[in-house]
């Protein structure tokens, strides 16, 4: 049957004049090609009206047009440096360090299919519009490394208050607060700025102040009483609350038996002290013995304030020696002066000898 139809069609075409045959061929070609032509000429899809990427309106644009607009209006913002202000320093972080990459084409493709229910990447805009965040990526490790390095530069340990001892004056070097920077918090803030071209390219991170263990008031409490001995001018000075209260003339060790220098403390105290005679040639026949307190043979008169290794402050019966280097290492005082000093000086008092 098909063969008969084809034969009839062949006879019909052979009987037609040439102009009619050409017209028929053109008509058949149009019928065959029209679906393909219709498909080729279909307009590209457009992004729905009301869709924007942050402040850039892409509604009604094709993906290609939206990509071009985003490249012009958003891409430059991602390359702008981030100004970082920390502890009075003004620094700059280059986004290239974090390899910031804004994908305008991917953002435009997301805009094409954006709907109000796309809650993971779409926010509600004004007048019911849809606002998308741009598709952007960056490396986080360089940001962390930058923040950690900056925290290391800024960090400063707290400094305790200290007493600066002098034979004539006492001075408190005040404490200083320490500084710490939260590197994790700083890195998070820089990350947020790098991903959002709409935010100001500025980050200010506050530092945390750390307190020292000892402040100036603690120093004053620790050093309520201080004694200083000047070997050069043969003076013992008594300080209360770091202020000079009294000054006494003393004798110090002679050249062969010098009074030790340095910072010491009152170790013990005695009224009419027993003298444990040292094993020394100058002690003569008394070497290694003990002499009762108050004895005429005891050179430690009235009071004793031990300082270091047998060296102490005591009264003397040799008043003529005061104001000279005459002792065997101890600090001699007039009896009336040592009695005056004794109740003013508790055990533990700091003693500076210089």
From TrEMBL:
Q: Which GO terms describe its cellular component?
A: extracellular region
**Stored InterPro entries:** LD-transpeptidase (IPR050979), LD_TPept_cat_dom (IPR005490), Transpep_catalytic_dom (IPR038063)
A biological process (GO) of this protein is:
regulation of cell shape
- The answer to whether the entry has keyword Chaperone is no
Where would I find the L,D-TPase catalytic domain in this sequence? 225-354
The record, for SUPFAM superfamilies, names: L,D-transpeptidase catalytic domain-like
Q: Which UniProt keywords apply?
A: Cell shape, Cell wall biogenesis/degradation, Peptidoglycan synthesis, Transferase
Which pathway does this polypeptide act in? Cell wall biogenesis; peptidoglycan biosynthesis
Any one GO molecular function term: transferase activity
- Pfam families under this entry? YkuD (PF03734)
- Cite the PROSITE patterns for this sequence: LD_TPASE
Q: What is this protein called?
A: Unannotated protein
């Amino acid at each position: 049957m098909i063969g008969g139809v084809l034969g009839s069609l062949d006879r019909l075409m052979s009987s037609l004049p040439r102009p009619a045959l050409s017209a028929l061929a053109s008509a058949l070609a149009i019928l065959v090609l029209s679906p393909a032509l219709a498909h080729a000429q279909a307009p590209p899809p457009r992004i729905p009206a009301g869709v924007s990427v942050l402040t850039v309106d892409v509604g009604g644009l094709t993906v290609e047009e939206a990509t071009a607009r985003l490249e012009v209006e958003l891409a430059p913002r991602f390359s702008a440096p981030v100004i970082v202000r920390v502890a009075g320093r003004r620094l700059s972080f280059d986004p290239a360090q974090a390899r910031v990459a804004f994908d305008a084409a991917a953002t435009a493709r997301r805009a094409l299919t954006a709907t109000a229910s796309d809650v993971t990447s779409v926010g509600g805009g004004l007048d019911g519009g849809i606002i998308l965040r741009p598709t952007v990526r960056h490396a986080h490790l360089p940001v962390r490394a930058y923040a950690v390095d900056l925290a290391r530069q800024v960090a400063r340990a707290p400094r305790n208050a200290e007493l600066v001892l002098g034979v004539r004056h006492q001075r408190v070097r005040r404490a200083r607060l320490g500084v710490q920077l939260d590197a994790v918090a700083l890195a998070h803030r820089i990350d947020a700025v790098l991903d959002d071209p709409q935010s100001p390219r500025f980050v200010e991170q506050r530092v945390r102040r750390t307190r020292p263990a000892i402040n100036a008031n603690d120093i004053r409490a620790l050093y309520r009483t201080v004694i200083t001995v000047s070997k050069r001018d043969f003076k013992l000075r008594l300080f209360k609350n770091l202020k000079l209260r009294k000054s006494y003339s003393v004798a110090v060790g002679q050249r062969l038996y010098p009074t030790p220098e340095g910072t010491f403390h009152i170790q013990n105290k005695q009224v009419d002290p027993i003298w444990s005679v040292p094993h020394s040639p100058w002690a003569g026949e008394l070497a290694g013995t003990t002499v009762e307190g108050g004895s005429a043979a005891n050179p430690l008169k009235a009071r004793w304030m031990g300082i270091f290794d047998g060296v102490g402050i005591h009264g003397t019966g040799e008043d003529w020696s005061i104001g000279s280097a005459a002792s065997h290492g101890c600090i001699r005082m007039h009896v009336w002066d040592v009695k005056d000093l004794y109740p003013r000086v508790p055990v533990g008092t700091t003693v500076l000898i210089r």
